[in-house]
């Protein structure tokens, strides 16, 4: 790997990593933010909600616009704008004097982050070829996985020992390094065929589509689908989604060329992304709830419990990325989700009596998990993590080799938008099913109880068991376990569907020919 390639990869990894870190670290900082920041317009809980969802909303809504801008105006130039914007907004977040200022800063930070995620993959696609490109995708996947997995744990330590503000300000030195690497070593590239006017109307429509679906699903789930605003926003997103391809077909310079979807691998990869990332959301979300709300794991222990599987992703992604570039991505994209499904089904056998792990940093005797963890969770984490490592980098390889380099930014952005909106939509639907299953089961276990009563639902939410020994608490524990098992079955079904789609639809020949063609063009 040349010096230019090495620093290009470092810039791409840093740019995407800070975005993923700030979407996960904030979750552990929210309690202290709520206690320490004054608020005048928003309530504390409402402010915490918007600090989290405001970032995700603009991040999701502007992904495709940002990817198209990088192809049109230059990937290096737009990536630098994103880095500088993310650094400045991180400072604003870290110095926020009140909750309202922090919410606005987070919305702007999400907009800057939208530039960096597709931009990072576009830089790799434009600057690497052949097996080196597959290996670079693997490094990118491993680094983003590491930051996502370790972010909440490290962030929690910083929040507890220093301040929640450090969770934002720590981005600044990383941004400075990434800016230097990009400005000094990254070559400029753009879509040379883009000579007309930029499609700003298409950009507005796709922002409404992606933002409406993303925010509507998240907001509805958080408000238990009792706020009509969620349905209004979702409806706007659905209308814009159906209008978007019609507008693209009529535009001379479409934001997203519909010809991209003529590529078999591009279309199949995006379908499998919807299914597989939907399964990831369901698995991680309900596993975290089950560990803490039902079994009684501490937050730190719940985070540590998932590290073994995450380490496999970190250490094996590069290897599988290189193999997929050499052998084709099909086998990895088919077997990987299959192994992940086996791991998820292992979670579905965990009983409600599995002992809790309470990790206390100052107590070395608490650092070792209970012996049952090595039966109930560790095998599942290893199988799941190995499958995930097998799948992630090859999926990226299949996606980015399925389209011309000139469209790499928008292609990456489309896939990233699907990977964010798909899980939220799937999660919203599954949330309704899990909730209905939980309360119908509670009604059967406790005859005569009105499970539709708001007071009952407040005291007995799904997958959260009161620390009492009465009959209702025991029923809630057993029914929450059943609900968790149902969520795991749904997650496994989505993974099996993704594996089937990849096995039938992905073409190794197309991916390998595309990689050779790009390598030849670079020489």
Give the CA-CA distance, first to last residue.
15 Å
Structure summary, number of beta strands: 0
The CATH superfamily of the largest domain appears as MFS general substrate transporter like domains
Please provide the ordered H/E string of secondary-structure elements.
Answer: HHHHHHHHHHHHHHHHHHHH
Mean pLDDT: 84
CATH architecture of the largest domain: Up-down Bundle
The profile of the biggest β sheet is: none
Structural class based on helices, strands and sheet pairing? mainly alpha
| CATH class descriptor of the largest domain | Mainly Alpha
Shape: globular
Give the CATH topology of the largest domain: Growth Hormone, Chain: A
The total of helices stands at 20
Structural domain tally: 3
Radius of gyration: 23 Å
What share of residues is helical? over 70%
What percent of residues are in strands? under 5%
As residue ranges, the low-confidence spans are none
Task: Walk me through this protein's architecture.
With 523 residues, the chain is mainly alpha-helical. The protein folds into three domains: 1-197, MFS general substrate transporter like domains (Growth Hormone, Chain: A, Up-down Bundle), CATH 1.20.1250.20; 199-254; 260-420 and 491-513, MFS general substrate transporter like domains (Growth Hormone, Chain: A). Helices cover 78% and strands 0% of the residues. The protein is built from 20 helices and no strands. It has helices at 3-36, 44-61, 63-73, 75-94, 99-127, 130-161, 166-169, 171-185, 200-222, 228-250, 264-294, 299-305, 307-327, 330-347, 373-376, 378-400, 408-445, 454-459, 471-505, 508-522. Helix 4 runs antiparallel to helix 8 (171-185) and helix 14 (330-347) runs antiparallel to helix 19. The longest helix is centred in the last third of the chain and has 38 residues, at 408-445. The two termini are 15 Å apart.
């Amino acid at each position: 790997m040349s010096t230019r390639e090495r620093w290009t990869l470092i810039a791409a990894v840093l740019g995407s990593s800070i975005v993923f870190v700030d979407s996960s670290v904030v979750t552990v900082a929210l309690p202290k933010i709520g206690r320490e920041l004054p608020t005048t317009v928003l309530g504390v809980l409402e402010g915490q909600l918007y600090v989290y969802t405001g970032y995700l909303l603009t991040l999701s809504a502007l992904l495709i616009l940002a990817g198209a801008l990088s192809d049109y105006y230059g990937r290096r130039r737009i990536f630098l704008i994103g880095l500088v914007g993310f650094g400045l907004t991180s400072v604003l977040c870290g110095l926020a004097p009140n909750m309202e200022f922090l919410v606005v800063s987070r919305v702007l930070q999400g907009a800057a982050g939208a530039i960096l995620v597709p931009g990072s993959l576009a830089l790799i696609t434009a600057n690497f070829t052949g097996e080196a490109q597959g290996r670079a995708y693997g490094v990118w996947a491993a680094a983003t996985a590491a930051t996502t997995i370790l972010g909440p744990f490290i962030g929690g330590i910083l929040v507890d020992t220093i301040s929640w503000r450090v969770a934002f300000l720590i981005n600044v030195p990383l941004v400075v390094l990434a800016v230097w690497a990009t400005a000094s070593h990254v070559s400029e590239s753009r879509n040379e065929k883009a000579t007309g006017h930029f499609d700003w109307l298409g950009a507005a429509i796709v922002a409404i589509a992606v933002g409406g679906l993303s925010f509507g699903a998240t907001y509805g789930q958080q408000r238990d689908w009792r706020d009509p605003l969620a349905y209004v926003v979702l409806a706007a997103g659905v209308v814009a989604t159906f209008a978007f391809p019609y507008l693209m077909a009529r535009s001379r310079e479409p934001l997203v060329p519909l010809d991209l979807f003529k590529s078999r691998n591009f279309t199949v990869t995006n379908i499998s992304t919807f299914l597989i990332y939907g399964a990831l959301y369901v698995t991680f979300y309900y596993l975290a709830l089950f560990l803490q709300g039902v079994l009684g794991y501490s937050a730190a222990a719940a985070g540590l419990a998932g590290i073994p599987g995450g380490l496999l992703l970190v250490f094996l992604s590069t290897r599988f990325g290189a193999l997929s570039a050499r052998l084709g991505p099909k086998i990895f994209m088919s077997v990987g989700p299959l192994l992940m499904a086996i791991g998820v089904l292992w979670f579905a056998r965990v009983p409600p009596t599995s002992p809790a792990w309470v990790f206390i940093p100052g107590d070395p005797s608490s650092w070792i998990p209970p012996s049952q963890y090595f039966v109930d969770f560790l095998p599942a984490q290893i199988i799941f993590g190995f499958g995930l490592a097998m799948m992630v980098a090859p999926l990226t390889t299949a996606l980015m080799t399925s389209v011309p380099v000139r469209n790499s930014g928008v292609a990456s952005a489309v896939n990233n938008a699907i990977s964010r909106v798909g899980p939220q939509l799937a999660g919203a639907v599954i949330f309704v099913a899990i909730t209905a299953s939980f309360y119908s089961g509670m009604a059967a276990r406790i005859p005569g109880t009105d499970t539709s009563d708001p007071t009952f639902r407040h005291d007995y939410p799904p997958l959260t068991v009161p620390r009492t020994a009465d009959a209702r608490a025991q029923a809630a524990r057993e029914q929450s376990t059943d609900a968790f098992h149902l969520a795991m079955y749904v997650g496994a079904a989505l993974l099996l569907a993704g594996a089937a789609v990849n096995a039938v639809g992905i073409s190794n020949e197309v991916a390998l020919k595309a990689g050779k063609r790009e390598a030849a063009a670079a020489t």
